Known about the structure:
This protein has 478 residues and is mostly helical. The chain has helices at residues 2-27, 35-42, 44-66, 72-97, 106-124, 132-158, 164-195, 200-223, 239-247, 250-280, 287-311, 314-329, 340-350, 354-376, 381-409, 422-446, 454-473.
Amino acid sequence: MVQNHIKWFITFFNKFCFLANTLYDLVMSEIRATNLRMMGFSLPSLGLNMLVTAVFVILPPLYAEHLGLGAAIGAIFFAAKLVDITAAPLWGLFMDSYRTRWGRRRPWLALSVPILMLAIFMVYNPPENAGGLYLFVWLATLYVGWSAWTISHTSWALELSRDYDRRSRIAGLLQAMTMVGGILIGGGWAIMQWITTPTLEQTASAIGWFMIIALPITVILCLFSVPERATPNRPYLSFKKGASLVFTNMPLLRLLLANFMISFSTYFVQALFFFFVAFTLNLQNNTGFILVFLLVGGLIGLPVWIRLSERWTKHSCMQISVATGAMTSLLLLALPSNAVILTIVAFLLVGLNSSANEFLPRAMMADVCDHDHIQSGSERMGLYYSLLQASSKLASGIGVFLVMSVLGIFEFIPELGPDNTNTALQRLRYLIVTLPMIAYLIVIGLMWRYPISRERQREMRTIIEERERVAMSSPVDP
Length: 478
């Protein structure tokens, strides 16, 4: 008799703890904070575009042209990306599966800082005898730290809200900070070129030191700005069933392929940016200044894309943004050499859709996670965002690999710079426009009749919340 009472008490206590956690989860399903705190929370996104811009605009010409690695740079970037693509889902699974006393996301964001600081120092301050192995090791290390940084922070951000449109605004805020980070890098580069004539090695070192100082400061401010939304540890899900749910999730697969195409076009253009502006347009001393306006265009377009995503749907807004990108990229075919003002205007317009290309896939992935939540019974935001990031990383690796490989086919030799033939220089125009346009057209097709609309997402949230209410009201059997 006593044993039965003890057993009943233990069962009741476990149920009480479960209900308390579920109730807390419902109460905390919407994390709201002041604008100042949300700004502090979004600061780590500064580092995202700092890294993206600096890695894909500065490093290829630095190692290819000045350190003499040539076309091999593409293969090295791709090999490092393969390490990164493997690490990203592992980070996501690990973060989803374990909750520490400090949360599921915070510790890994903090851990990524020293990894990134060391890797940035090594990559942006290479010794004169740095070779392919040196670049591969430290670039792969940088990518692994970068994955921990972005997966932890973005998963934390996307879990702050369960509302279709508020997710867009949160992702938009992160994207705004991302664009500001890129502008800081481009602006610093432009100021250096205005004051003096720095070598590419000096530029890379200065940008590296700026990031080494900025990254830990932004993370410290973030950690004390906004709480994590409480989520229970996910129920046991076998690898086979979990993988099956991923590979049969058609909204996920369509979004991943669309994100791959968008990322490919973005990184392809960034990898060609220096060569195109410096040598085809003969504006080598204005590259940083022009890069700023490419990023400013994205910042100007951001509130427009957020408003359109709320007025229509995220996937229709994505179709419009890539169509805009395809049309504005045609301007690059007509740009004359030595025309600074026209080049600024052209890249300002080209950059208008870039912010939509970044924040829309992230906001849509949060909705895809609701679809998975219904099937798996748990939130796997870390895993799903890591898959989104892996698609971007694969695209970036392939983009840089293609750029550095195709340049030789187009008879462009990076080491020759402006001394390349006029034919080779002009061929860069068609290269920087054609492949991104093809990728954009594929995205338009992938987003046609995309199944998760605003109405469907709200239906899914109703189902999920009803499950939680049922769990809370389940009686305890004596």
